[in-house]
Amino acid sequence: MIVEFSVKNFRSIKELQTISFVATGLKSAEKYAEVDKNNIVEEGGMQLFKTLGIYGANASGKSNVVKAFSCFIKTITQEPSSQSNLSELCDPFLFQENAAETESFFQIVLIITGVKYRYGFTVKRNKPNKDGILGYSQEVVTNEWLYGQKQKNMRPLFKRSGQKVNSNLPDADKIPTSTPYEHSLFLTYAAAFQTREECCNEIRNFFKFFTIHNLNPLNHIDSDTSIYYVYHSDEKKAMIDLLSVFDLKYHDIYIEEDLPIETITKNDIFLTKRKHNQDVILNLRKNESEGTQKLFDLAGLLLRAFNSIPSSGFLILDEIDSNFHPALLIKLISLFNNPEINKANSQLLFTSHDTNLMSPAIARRDQFYFTEKNEDESTRLYSLADLRGIRNDADFARQYLGGYYGALPILEDYETTTTTNERTVELETK
């Protein structure tokens, strides 16, 4: 399970910002005692949340926090290559001197099979030498580290500076002490020399097989998992049952032709609704709304996260409220927090503008984070639990919209802004 993620000097994030799944010492009001019971899981001696939400104004940096997390995961899971895969991570805060020469920092703390690990690295764009020649790697890893838990303490498993590595891994004698390229992660390089059960492989495989994010350019979720459930008849009922929870009541879902699974798209998926003893057949792509298609895609991921995987999964959903009704969102969050449904204790990190989720009956104060812009255009990330004087049974949504917590857009009158801009142009012309 994820404990926390930290990032520094990435896009709008200048200073170190951390989002933590660790529950604080606060307690829900007595009437919401079930929230504490349902939303928190004990793992590795820690109390961890299953859901966290990030709120804030447009352009305040919500998506940059989860994008940093997503790019971090993507980089770890890619196979070692002679070509750099660090370009997305080397995107430093621009409102600073010599931005292109600065390092970006990324670090994760997580628990796998009861063992806590802390893994991270710093990266930067490569700099031409004195003759103006750029090295083989467009971007470089400047530092990298992995710490593992031994009893109650954390001890270094490897530490890397440049391409040189000081390794304390159990099988260190089998692994070279330098990376083949400046852009190569030692974690992925070492994993190639380890068995599946050893630490570098465990960390990579957790992110490779048990994490999913929807941060592609169109903010769409991949359909492959849902198609798998429809394609295999013995799995299809679970898909139909889950969709019915969200008021999408289908009698059947099927693929009309005998197609190889790797070629199937939503154009090939048909849904049957039975009305007045007659079947009405709908094509998923042509006849159903964007929201229904998104929910179809998400349903397969939920089934896998809740039941099918041997470990806790992790989902990142940016703009979770896009195309979804507020009541549907509340139901989705409640499924994650329900221990009878989410038996694997999978976790969800999401961004949203929908304040219907901001209720003490749904989540605690320390499950809500906010982003806002500082004067220098950098992002500040903070938890509602960091603010004093907020009751645990307060109307979080009302107080947030009322400006109690910050993280709201600063709006101006259009006429005043237009007049001011015109006056500025007139003065500059003179």
Shape-level CATH architecture of the largest domain? 3-Layer(aba) Sandwich
CATH topology of the largest domain: Rossmann fold
Q: Spans of 5+ residues with little confidence (pLDDT < 50)?
A: 215-219
List SSEs in N-to-C order: EEHEEEHEEEEEHHEHHEEEHHEHEEEHH
CATH class membership of the largest domain? Alpha Beta
What spatial order of strands do you see in the largest sheet?
2-1-6-7-8-9-10
Query: In total, how many domains does the architecture comprise?
Result: 2
Range of helix content: 25-40%
Average pLDDT, to the nearest integer?
90
Q: DSSP helix count?
A: 11
How widely separated are the two ends? 63 Å
User: What is Rg?
Assistant: 24 Å
Provide the structure class: alpha+beta
What is the overall silhouette?
Answer: globular
For the biggest sheet, the summary is: 7 strands, antiparallel
If you had to describe this structure to a student in words, what would you say it looks like?
The chain is an alpha+beta fold and 430 residues long. It folds into 2 domains: 2-218 and 318-401, Rossmann fold, CATH 3.40.50; 224-297, no CATH class. It is built from 11 helices and 18 strands. The protein has helices at residues 33-39, 62-77, 186-191, 199-210, 224-231, 233-245, 284-287, 290-308, 326-337, 396-401, 414-429, and strands at residues 2-8, 17-20, 40-43, 46-49, 51-56, 104-112, 115-125, 139-150, 153-161, 164-167, 211-213, 252-255, 269-275, 278-283, 314-317, 347-351, 368-373, 379-383. The strands form 4 sheets. Strands 2-1-6-7-8-9-10 form a 7-stranded antiparallel β-sheet. A 6-stranded mixed β-sheet has the order 11-15-16-5-17-18. The chain has a 3-stranded antiparallel β-sheet with strand order 12-13-14. Strand 6 (104-112) and strand 7 (115-125) form a beta hairpin. Helix 2 (62-77) packs across helix 4 (199-210), helix 5 packs across helix 8 (290-308) and helix 6 (233-245) crosses helix 8. Residues 215-219 have low confidence and may be disordered.
